[in-house]
Amino acid sequence: MKNLRIFLISVLISTCTNYCLSQETNEGEINESILKEIKSSFKDNAETEAVINAVSNNNINKLTLNRENIGKVDNYFSNRVKTAGITDQKSTGRCWLFTGLNVLRPKIIEKYNLEDFSFSHNFSFFWDQLEKANLFLEAIITTSNKDMDDETVKWLLKNPINDGGQWTGVVDITLKYGLIPASVMPETYNSENTRIMSRLIRRKLRENALILREKYRQGKELENIRNAKTEMLSEIYRLLAITLGEPTENFEWRYEDKDGNISELKKYTPKSFYKEFVGIDLNDYIMLMNDPSREYNKLYEIRYDRHMHEGNNWKYINLDIDKIKEFAKLSILDDEAMYFSCDVGKQLEKENGFLDINNYDYSSLFGINFNMDKKQRIQTFESGSSHGMTLVAVDIDENGKPKKWLLENSWGVDSGFNGHLIMTDKWFDEYMFRIVINKKFISNDVLEILKQNPVVLPPWDPMFLPDN
Question: Which of 278, 298, 333 represents a domain boundary (last residue)?
Fold first, then answer.
C-alpha cells in the first residue's frame, strides 16, 4: 500500500510538472508550423471559391435546405385531437404556460360546446413571477451560510428569475391560485414583451439577495430576515401589478356556445372557476423524459427546479423513446393532447413548419461531418429542451407505427403550418426530451417507478433548462 501511494504521488508530480512546463514553453499554442498545416488543409480552388461566394452572401439554411425533403410529407394525420384556435405567446418565454393550458383547452371547448376558449395567461403568469421571486429569496436565505463562490449560490444569483418554466409550474400555480378566462384579465404590453420587466425584477432580486445575506452575517433572527423578505416581495408585487395589472379576486362571467345559447351569469373566484368550470385533476399527469445519457426506468428530480417554494421540483421518469411513443399514441387515440418539449431549433424548416433530421445538409456544403448522437449532444450542452408545445396528432401506418406527429404551437396562426409544426418520427427520436401524459395511458410497470427514491440532480445539469 505504501509503494502504491508513493507511485501515485510521483505520477501526480510528473503530471503537474509536465503541465506547468507546457504552460511555460507555450506548448498547445497555434504556432507557425501548426498554422501552416491548418491552412494547407483548406483547398484553394474554383470549387472552394464558389462555396465561399455563395455562403458569404447568403443565409446558410437557405443554401443547405434539402430539396429532396420538400413535398415528401403531407399535412394529413390518421388520428388527431379536436382543437380550436392558435395561441400566441408573443415576445416572451411563456411557452410552458401556453402549452400546459393548451392541454386543458380542448377539453373545455368540447365540454361546453364552444367555438373557442382561452385561459388568461397573464393571470397565471403574474402569480408565477411572484412565486418565483419568493422561491429565489428563500433559497438565498437557506444558503446564506455558504460563500458567494459556492456553486449553488452562484447559480442562484445567475438565475434569480425568468419567464420560462415547465409543467410542474402549470400544476402548482393552478392548484394554488386557480384559473380565469382570458377576457377577465387580458394581456398587457408587458405580459407580451417581458424583457424589460424581467430585467428589472432580476436586478431587484439580486440586490435583495445581498441584503438578506448581510442580515444573516450580522446574526439577525430568522423572523427578522423573513420580515425583510416580505417587504421585498411587496415591491415585486408592486412592479408586477403596474406592468401586468393586479389579478382579480372575484369576477362574473358567462359564455355563448356554438348553438347560440348563452349561459347564466355566474360569480366566481379564480379557484372556484378552476374547480367548477374546468374540473380537471392535474395530479393525474406524469412527466416522462428520454435522456439516453442516463439510466432508463429510473425516477429523477431536479433540485430548485420548481415554480414556488412549497411546490414540486421537476420530477420525471426516464424511458426508452419507443415506450414514450407508445403511450403518446394511446393518448391521441383517446382524444387527449399532451405537454411536449423539445429542441425546436434543430432542423426546423420554419416557413412550412416542418421538423425532420434531414432538412438541412450542412455537411455537404462545408465538407465537414457532424456526428454526435443524442446522448453526446446532451452531455456537451449541444442539445436540450428549448420549447414547449402541445402534441395533438399522429399519423399511423398500416403496421400501427407512427410516421409523423403534429404539434400545436404558440407562435401565432401565421407561423409554420397554420400555427402548427409537423415532425417526422425520426425527428421525434432525436430531439424530443419530455412529455406529460395522463397516467391512465401509462402501463403499471412504468407507474411503479414513481415509488422509487428519485436520483436528485443539480439545477445546472445540461438537460434542465426551462422551456420558453
Answer: 278
Cα gap 123→187, rounded to integer Å: 9
pLDDT, mean of residues 176-197? 96
Rounded Cα–Cα distance for residues 22 and 440 (Å): 61
Choosing from 122, 409, 438, 468, the catalytic residue is 409
Say yes or no: 269 and 293 in one domain: no
293 and 263: one domain?
A: no
Q: For residues 167, 171, 173 and 177, what is the CA-based torsion angle, rounded to 10 degrees?
A: 160
Q: Which residue range(s) make up the domain with 288?
A: 282-457
Which of 134, 387, 420, 438 is catalytic? The answer is 387
Query: Is-catalytic flag, 307?
Result: no
Which three cell numbers mark 50?
464558389
What's the confidence (pLDDT) of residue 14? 52
Q: What cell numbers appear for 80 in the block? A: 388527431
95 is a catalytic site residue: yes
Listing DSSP states for 306-319 in one string gives SSSTTS---EEEE-
Residue labelled with grid coordinates 403499471: 444
| 342 is annotated as an active-site residue | no
The Cα–Cα gap between 105 and 127 comes to 20
Q: Is 446 left (phi over 0), alpha (psi -120 to 50) or beta?
A: alpha
Measured CA to CA, the distance from residue 36 to residue 311 in angstroms comes to 58
Q: Radius of gyration (Cα) for the chain, nearest Å?
A: 26
Residue-wise pLDDT for 330-378, tens only, equals: 999 999 999 999 999 999 999 899 999 999 999 988 989 999 999 999 9
Q: How far does CA 15 lie from the centroid of its chain?
A: 42
**Whether residue 377 sits in one domain with residue 251:** no
pTM attached to this predicted model: 0.88
Phi, psi of 365 (to 5 degrees): -70, -45
